[in-house]
Design brief:
heterodimer; A: 390 residues; Rossmann fold; 2 domains; 6-stranded mixed sheet; 13 helices; 18% strand; B: alpha+beta; Alpha-Beta Plaits; two-stranded antiparallel sheet; 4 strands; 10% helix
């Protein structure tokens, strides 16, 4: 039977990597990801996880080791944050283009500068277009479950793409939560050993990472884009089966108290649980407010998102990253573009909030909704940075 | 577009190449704008061109003279630069006597 254990979410993530029986873990420590790597290295040193733990000299090497290991047919895992992600980014793109099922947790943290170790989504958004499947977790249970889901999705021969699990730094990584730990037997049933479609082996030599001239490159990009879009079905299947095994059902877009709502908050990541508290309180006060939470960021669930907000007059999109000089936060940009062809478009009000770990409380969401009601009818600015001092 | 080129559905996942050594099929000679021409009266058959060619595109004939395999020769001109007797001249494509 599954049991509930109070543990730090980073430790839960590491335990999931152990239960998923990763073969190779290559990582470099960086705040706020460090506890995950530390715990995995302990598990390997103590003989609890039979894996090669490679304490590399940089994140660029961490992803390079994962690419090499995965190409040789190993189940490979890494995790990083912020500056580490930006340093490894060259190889992140290559992992996707080689269609290698590496799994990575990104403990989201703001990018320098100024130097900040605190949480926002600027690191995630830098790699928005890198070709990985990207999932935003809202709590510790989703991170823990997400590791199994990620390997299962990534290694599906209809998918064969790397998966990034985004978990908010500190807000999730350093919090102790009640986690329902899944029995090993359930994990083993859900996640069979990885069988590569192609691998580097002297018995059957192949070339990976070859050069492509202009007459071929466009076709390679089309193939990669179609592969990412086509992963949508297998992602849903993997989540459905997990739901049957554990009772926890995940969807690409999740709605909360959207029946009869006029205004909807749109959030990603750990914002969502706090926002749901604000929605509860506002509903008690008689306000027609709901919440839509985007879990799957890539491939973006356009249809499911459009369905989730049908009939809503005002969307309040809360972004955790700035697109300097751009049209708003990255999530709001995506949503505006998703709605452009719709006949009855809602007003989209965009707040950028919670940058570099600044708290966003239920009262803040209430203020954002009040502010959105004021400005939505009068063609608002593309976005406002919430709570910024003059 | 591109007769004989792969369509996107024909590309294997990750652009993997399952046939070993197929780089030799690639006609790098298509890149060439100048081609090397040998003046046999100056050539002393030393083979310095053969050694320096970065593409291994220079071959030796039955008499011991050297020539470029134009399927691979990119026209870089390293052979002409290295030839110490001045036997190799780079000639613009289309202006060489034999085409």
């Amino acid at each position: 039977m599954a049991k509930r254990v109070g543990m730090e979410v980073s430790i839960a993530a590491a335990e999931a990597v152990k239960q998923a029986n990763a073969d190779v873990v290559a990582a470099y420590p960086i705040t706020p990801q460090t506890h995950i790597v530390e715990h995995i290295s302990e598990l390997v040193a103590d003989g609890e996880l039979d894996a090669e733990f490679v304490p590399v000299e940089s994140e660029h090497s961490a992803m390079s080791v994962c690419v090499g290991a995965s190409a040789a047919g190993a189940r490979a895992f890494t995790c990083t944050s912020s500056q580490g992600l930006i340093l490894m980014s060259e190889i992140v793109w290559i992992a996707a283009s080689l269609r290698l099922p590496v799994v990575m947790i990104v403990a989201n943290r703001s990018l320098s500068g100024p130097l900040s170790i605190w949480n926002d989504h600027s690191d995630a958004m830098m790699l928005r277009d890198c070709g990985w499947i990207q999932i935003f977790a809202q709590n510790g249970q989703e991170v823990y479950d997400g590791v199994f889901n990620a390997f299962r999705i990534a290694e599906d021969h209809r998918v064969l793409l790397p998966v990034m699990i985004h978990m908010d730094g500190f807000i999730l990584t350093h919090v102790i939560e009640s986690i329902e730990v899944v029995d090993q037997e359930v994990v083993d049933r859900y996640l069979p050993p990885y069988k590569p479609l192609y691998r580097l082996h002297p018995d059957d030599p192949v070339t990976m990472g070859a050069f492509a001239m202009p007459p071929l490159y466009t076709e390679t990009q089309m193939a990669q884009n179609e592969a990412l879009k086509a992963s949508y079905g297998p992602i849903l299947e993997a989540w459905e089966e997990w739901g049957e095994l554990t009772g926890r059902h995940y969807r690409p877009v999740e709605t909360y108290k959207m029946e009869g709502a006029e205004v909807a908050l749109i959030t990603m990541g750990s914002f969502s649980e706090t926002a749901s508290v604000a929605v509860d309180e506002m509903r008690e006060e008689g306000e027609a407010v709901g919440l839509v939470r985007i879990r799957l960021w890539r491939p973006f669930p356009f249809e499911e998102f459009r369905k989730s907000i049908r009939g809503i007059k005002t969307l309040v999109v809360v972004d955790r990253a700035i697109s300097f000089g751009g049209p708003g936060g990255p999530v709001a940009s995506e949503i505006r573009s998703a709605l452009y062809e719709e006949k009855d478009r809602p007003a989209v009000v965009n707040f950028i909030a919670g940058i570099a770990g600044r708290d966003v409380s239920p009262d803040d969401y209430k203020r954002m909704i009040r502010r959105a009601r004021e400005i939505a009818p009068v063609l608002p600015e593309a976005y406002e940075i919430y709570g910024v001092r003059e | 577009m591109g007769e004989g080129l792969l369509g996107w559905k024909e590309i294997k996942p990750g652009c993997v190449i399952t046939e070993a050594g197929n780089a030799s099929e690639y006609r790098t000679g298509d890149w060439r704008s100048d081609r090397p021409i040998w003046d046999k009266s100056k050539c002393v058959k030393c083979g310095i061109c053969y050694i320096f060619c970065p593409e291994a595109a220079i071959e030796e004939d039955e008499e011991g003279y050297f020539y470029a395999n134009l399927y691979y020769c990119k026209g870089c001109g390293i052979c002409a630069t290295e030839c110490w007797t001045g036997a190799i001249t780079m000639v613009e494509e289309g202006k060489a006597e034999d085409g």
